[in-house]
Amino acid sequence: MRIFDIQKIKAYPYEEREKNVLYACKDFKTRIIQLLPGKEIPSCDMPSWVLFLCLRGEARIQINSKKKVIRKGQLLISEPGKFSMKTEKGVRIIGVQIPEGKNV
User: DSSP labels for 55-97?
Assistant: First the structure.
């Protein structure tokens, strides 16, 4: 068992995203995502189910052709697909990736 102080964890820029992984095992991976105002994560294929819990700020998330805005306190759950994210105000999110076909 591990406890993480989510508000104090340092977040690295997208280019160093592997440093943002808090926990990884064969069943899932958890990471912190933080984007400064005006920043984005370019489109990428995600072969896993994804959960995004917005801790602060807001971001526009596009999954395949669907666009949604996630705000503080909201949880987004999505099947695998092509993901991108952009924020005008800045955002801090916890992301959980669960490989497709896992029964967790």
Answer: EEEEEEEEETTEEEEEETT-EEEE-SEEEEEE-SS-EEEEEEE
Which three-class secondary structure string do you get for 8-29? Answer: CCCCCCHHHHHHHEEEECCCCE
The domains found in the chain, sorted by start residue, are 23-99 (2.60.120.10)
**Which amino acid is located at 63 in the chain?**
I
- How does pLDDT run across 42-98, given as a tens digit for each residue? 999 999 999 999 999 999 999 999 999 999 999 999 999 999 999 999 999 999 999
Q: Which residue has the higher pLDDT, 55 or 102?
A: 55
- Measured CA to CA, the distance from residue 48 to residue 78 in angstroms comes to 9
